[in-house]
Amino acid sequence: MRHLTSALSLLALVQLLAIPVYAQTTSEQKTPDQTTTQTSFDPIQKVVSANLMNKFPDGNFHPERFMGRAELASIMVKTFLLDKQKAATEDNINVTDVSSSHWAFQDIQTVLKTGVMKGYRGNLFFPNQKVTRAEALAIFAQSYGVFQFPEATVNEILAQFPDQQSIPQWARKAVATTVTGGFVNQKADGNLSPLKPMTRGDMAYVLSRYLQRQQRNPYTPEVTPINNTSIAPI
Asked: From which residue to which does the signal peptide run (predicted)?
């Protein structure tokens, strides 16, 4: 009965998402902006056109560059209109390493107030700190709304990846959800590489799949948010 329940949960989610999972090598194996030459599916062009991510002053997207916490906060606010959502508090949260003149100050305040991201001890946010793939996927799932798989189903979903044991426990449900939804670009060796830094190319892929989802099925499920008390500061 337990296996049947897990199988039915997975089947229901797959039917709801209705988007296949594509294995794609990341931009780490390509020269900068080589991914823009794709014709059938161009994640970078899609997210730039949607104004979710921007190119640099040199005109390139630089998909190989790593994502920082401030940049990720800004992207989540724009993608999910977090500034329009009800926040836990209207007062600014004291963050000692992000001044009011910081380019992402308002976005960082928004993700902190909505609980999408958390700060560190000492009222620190570490805006330039690199974000791992597991952290970025967990934050994306938290912003979008995560499906609560039973543990057995999570394990079944992640069992296909050789490095699934390296996925932090607090991120496993979120990673399983994003994998099932087709948001994750796998490495050429079939690994998820959850502890490696998230690149701009990786995030472009995630967001482009989200945009594709919204075009096909704009319905956003109402789900219980991830319990932040069990998540590492991200």
From this structure: 1-23
